[in-house]
Amino acid sequence: MSPLPIHRPQQMSLGPLETEILNIVWDLGCATVKQVHEHILADPDRELAYTSVTTVLRRLTQKGWLTCDENGRAFVWRPLISRRESKILRAHQQLNQFLAVGNPDVVAAFADSLDPASIDQIEAIAQKLKAIRQAREEKK
Fold it and tell me: Of 133, 125, 93, 136, which is closest to residue 5 (Cα–Cα)?
């Protein structure tokens, strides 16, 4: 079972350009403004100002997705969480929103509409939860 990442961005929602630039930084591992800008401009149909890339990288840093280090005269951005951790956090957030509906009929109707593979996954999750709770009780 994948635990929730220790670091969580302060703001999960991202705009399309923020998402694109975050994906570039994930792909590169770490990146300067120039590297991100060149990556975007590699598409001949794209135009984006260098300063816009800087603004988005700073915004991603403020939201808690990236950190910035000074390397000589250049600033280098690197992700604070991995792409996989991001997916885990988003799934957690979506599940919490779904369960916040609080109506057992809605949850049951959803579960009833699942395909057999999804039902198998839910049953596996239920078994994991049971084992976790049992281990927790045994520690007491």
Answer: 93
Instruction: Supply the DSSP symbol for 2.
Output: P
**Per-position DSSP letters for 4-60, written without gaps between them:** PPS---S-----HHHHHHHHHHHHHSSB-HHHHHHHHHTSTT----HHHHHHHHHHH
> What is the tens place of the pLDDT at every residue in 114-137?
888 888 888 888 898 888 898 888
Nearest Cα neighbor of 30 from 77, 84, 82, 83 is: 77
pLDDT (0 to 100) of residue 2: 60
Helix (H, G, I), strand (E, B) or coil at 74: strand
Tokens of 18: 């923020």
Q: How far apart are the first and last CA of the chain?
A: 22
